[in-house]
């Protein structure tokens, strides 16, 4: 008689454990897929932002090439600095430990360059 009740009690614990394992595995799988989607979206936003900065900088750099005054030279130096920072940015390495720090530096430089214009 005691064995029958032990089987019932143990079945509940076993089903609870199996349910937990199945739920954990499914949640992990869904979490990985969701993380990839979020990463791709966030990466695309960063790429678009940096592309906009680079387009701005290259356009103005090209437009100012024929200007020889000191004010234009200062603008060109600032643009070249921004272009250099963008070209060194590690697009291909999402594990780069200073990615966010470098991105903030590029944003700051863009604001500085925008203030000159």
Automatic annotation (TrEMBL):
Family the UniProt entry places it in: Belongs to the LTO1 family.
Alphabetized PANTHER family for the sequence: GEO13458P1, ORAL CANCER OVEREXPRESSED 1
The Essential protein Yae1 N-terminal domain, residue ranges: 19-57
InterPro entries: Essential_protein_Yae1_N (IPR019191), LTO1_adapter (IPR052436)
A Pfam family assignment: Yae1_N
Domain of life: Eukaryota
The protein, known as: Protein LTO1 homolog isoform X4
């Amino acid at each position: 008689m005691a064995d029958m009740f032990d089987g019932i009690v143990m079945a509940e614990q076993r089903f609870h454990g199996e349910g937990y394992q199945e739920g954990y595995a499914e949640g992990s799988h869904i979490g990985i897929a969701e993380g990839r989607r979020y990463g791709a979206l966030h990466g695309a936003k960063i790429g678009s932002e940096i592309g906009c900065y680079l387009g701005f900088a290259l356009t103005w750099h090209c437009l100012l090439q024929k200007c020889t005054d000191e004010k234009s030279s200062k603008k060109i130096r600032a643009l070249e600095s921004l272009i250099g920072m963008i070209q060194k940015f590690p697009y291909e390495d999402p594990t780069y430990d200073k990615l966010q720090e470098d991105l903030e530096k590029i944003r700051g430089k863009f604001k500085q360059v925008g203030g000159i214009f």
